[in-house]
Amino acid sequence: QVTLVESGGGLVQAGDSLRLSCVASGRGFSDYVGWFRQAPGKEREFVGRINPSGSVTFYADYLKNRFALSRDNAKGAVYLQMNDLTPADTAEYLCATGVTPGVYPLWGRGTMVTVSS
Fold first, then answer.
1. CA–CA distance from 111 to each of 10, 81, 100 (Å)?
2. CA within 13 Å, CB half, 77
């Protein structure tokens, strides 16, 4: 059975950086991967996505170029580098994957990121 597992979350201070990982187990990992986040009491929102080869990425406008996606398909991993974090970035971060961009039938359980001021 294929699963996605996110890791790398934690408690950081404003201005810090974190790198989240999304690792697939159970099969090869070469589909589109999207990252989303959900802050407490708020709706889930799109963060960014990366294509199967890692050559194309797309981000939500509100991120203002602070986040960057990369992947290592040999390791079955996708990374979300987050820089200059602010308390507004506090959320559960989830990755998801699918063969069609924007359609993600498989989701991880998320990793919590808390940014203190």
1. 8, 14, 24
2. 11
- Amino acid present at 4: L
Give the torsion through C-alpha atoms of 8, 11, 17, 19, to 10 deg. Answer: 10
Q: Are strands 67-72 and 57-59 parallel, antiparallel or unpaired?
A: unpaired
Dihedral angle, C-alpha 112, 113, 116, 117, nearest 10 °? -140
Apex 15 CA angle, 11 and 16, nearest 5: 45
CA 25 to the chain's CA centroid: 16
**Tens-digit pLDDT string for the chain (117 aa):** 789 999 999 999 999 999 999 999 876 667 999 999 999 999 999 999 999 999 999 999 999 899 999 999 888 899 999 999 999 999 999 999 999 988 999 999 999 999 999
Which two structure tokens, joined as six digits, stand for 52?
A: 């199967």
Scan for tokens 């981000």, then name that residue.
59
Hey, what are 69's tokens? 């996606």
